[in-house]
Every structure is written in C-alpha cells, then in structure tokens.
Write a structure and sequence with these properties.
This protein is about 90% helix and about 0% strand. The chain is elongated and about 65 Å long. It has one domain. The N and C termini lie far apart (about 60 Å). Helix 1 packs parallel to helix 3 and helix 2 packs antiparallel against helix 3.
Length: about 100
C-alpha cells in the first residue's frame, strides 16, 4: 500500500475536521460553541503530553503519539480560525471601502 494506515487516518481526520470547524466558524454565532473544538483538542493534547511523561514503560510512547495526533487536529482547527479571521477582515475592509465612496 502506498500510504501507511497512520498517515491515512491523519489525512482523513484533517479532511473531516477542516470543513466541520470552518462551517462552525461561519454559521454559528456563539463564540463559545465555535471555540469548543479548539479548546477541547488543546486540553486533550496537553493531557496526553503530560501523561506521556507519567506513564510507565512503553505506554509513554503511545501517549506521545496520541498527543501528536491531537496537536495535528488542533492545528487544523487553528487553520480554520485563521481562514475565518482573514475572511472577516476582508469583509469588513470591503464594507468600509464601500461607505467611503
């Protein structure tokens, strides 16, 4: 197979997370609900990272891999927030330019 199963899971997860978080950012008005996936993935990544140092034996490596996976998903959510911020900035800039003319 040309893709490892781990890489395939990562790619599919990011493909699922990107549209869902972007949809949340653009359609939901409540900031708390929009931030919920971002905060939960950050907490999960930090928890797994700390747990990787407190675990015994090879379990630490497993927790480190889970922390890496959660960090990748957190990065995908942060990318969606960046896209949302840029789109919002451009929209406000256009609206401001239309009032000036």
């Amino acid at each position: 197979m040309w893709l490892d199963p781990i890489v395939l899971v990562l790619i599919l997860s990011v493909i699922i997370i990107l549209p869902c978080q972007t949809l949340l950012c653009f359609k939901i008005k409540s900031v708390i609900i929009r931030l919920l996936p971002l905060i939960s993935l950050l907490i999960l990544a930090v928890f797994f990272f700390v747990r990787s140092f407190t675990a015994n034996g090879w379990d630490g490596l497993g927790y480190l891999l889970l922390a890496f996976y959660a960090a990748i998903l957190f990065g995908a959510c942060a990318l969606c927030w960046a896209i949302f911020g840029i789109a919002r900035y451009v929209r406000k800039k256009r609206k401001k330019d239309n009032f000036v003319e």
